[in-house]
Amino acid sequence: MGNIFSDRISDVPRSFIREILKITLDESVISFAGGLPNRDLFPLEEIKAATAKLLAESGKDVLQYSSSEGYRELREWIAARYRKKEMTIDPDNILITAGSQQGLDLLGKTILNEGDSVVIEEPGYLGAIQAFSIYRSRFHPVPVNPEGMDLDMLGQVLSSHTVKLMYCVPNFQNPSGISYSAENRCGVADLLRQRNTLLVEDDPYGELRFLGQDKQSFHNLIPHNTVLLGSFSKIVIPSFRIGWIAARHDIMEKLIIAKQASDLHTNYFGQRVILQYLKDNNIDDHIAKIREEYGRQRDAMVSAIREYFPSEAHYTEPEGGMFLWVTLPSGLSAMEVFKKSIAVKVAFVPGDPFYVNREQVNTLRLNFSSVDADTIRTGIRRLGDVLKTMV
Ligand SMILES: Cc1ncc(COP(=O)(O)O)c(C=O)c1O
Q1: Do 50 and 87 share a domain, yes or no?
Q2: Among 245, 280, 315, which residue terminates a domain?
């Protein structure tokens, strides 16, 4: 039988992280590989109470089909939260999606033709690379550094190609943990202001800052060019798969068509439970707890790295989020380190899948949010021992 698969799907690799996560199902493995929030902080009792109340008070209403845009009151809640950050976004400009990951897919469907140029960060979020690959875009990776995007390189790419979309995670980026400085954001905005390029600002971690000051969103700087992606995955729970896109009116109209074609609407019951939870609880208190705990976990990881890693290894010191990025001496393959590290039951993600056209790279991602401080120390000590035999 011939090949039945579309060209679209044939070229897209499976998510390497999902493959690694299979290894980490072995409970004796200390895993810094996943991107999981800390489950001990899930508001279980509050979600139980919200669910019971909703079913008792709204009965069968919450079990029915609903609108493609998403539940109005939830969109109003999201718009009000943006307003607190001086961002003027109308509920009509918000589409509730099945996680922000679906936002990426719907944007690909709505904006990208085959061969269209897309700027992504290097290293960049694997889920975005995968989502846009389905639409056969042409990637132009622009390196990120502790200040943000490499502006010279971005300028060069923008002047030599017609870039349709630029994707970035300016707060506590996945995978590197870095955040764009205020100056860097202005520099990016200046380069995009006169162009037709759409900037997709994906911000699942922005509220999880444990150090430093919040920075302006690109929506404050170049609102016409900016599409925002948001999510409840990291601030409430990920299993409901509830996120959103905030976009200007003409884009929203097309996104709604794409949403209808994909799944009619996002899980309505989940939207209602989340909203009930938000109405009955103080989300800022909850987020404060997450920040405090992630700050402690991050400190445990940074101090263990300082103590146990060879001095040739460099690492980012994130001010928020869930990840830290390690750069090994050049020539040392993180994939080779991974093989040895699994033998001592420590997992992480080698940098390779976060690049579109590089292999055997000397970088790796460590997640600190899903492992407790003592286990972090043990895992980093074991990984440090492996590294010392290799540098
Ligand atoms: C940068 C980034 N965007 C999007 C997502 C997807 O999140 P969601 O659960 O909202 O689909 C993740 C998840 O790890 C992420 O790190």
Answers
A1: yes
A2: 280
In terms of residue numbers, what domain contains 371?
Answer: 7-43+285-390
Measured between alpha carbons, how far is 388 from 278 in angstroms, rounded to an integer?
48
Q: With a 6 A CB cut-off, is 124 part of the ligand 1 pocket?
A: no
The per-residue pLDDT for range 274-300, each reduced to its tens digit, is 999 999 999 999 999 999 999 999 999
Question: Could you tell me if 136 and 115 are in contact, meaning their C-beta atoms sit under 8 angstroms apart?
Answer: yes
Residue 261: both structure tokens together: 């074609």
CA of 202 relative to ligand 1 center, distance in Å: 8
Q: Hey, which residues does 30 pair with through a beta bridge?
A: 346
Whether the bond into 175 is cis, omega within 30 of 0: yes
Distance 177 CA to ligand 1 centre (A): 14
For residue 61, the CA-to-ligand 1 centroid distance in Å is 30
Neighbours of 23 (CB within 10 A): 14
Strands 323-327 and 346-347, by their bridges, are unpaired
Q: Is 206 a pocket residue for ligand 1 (Cβ < 6 Å)?
A: no
pTM above 0.85, yes or no: yes
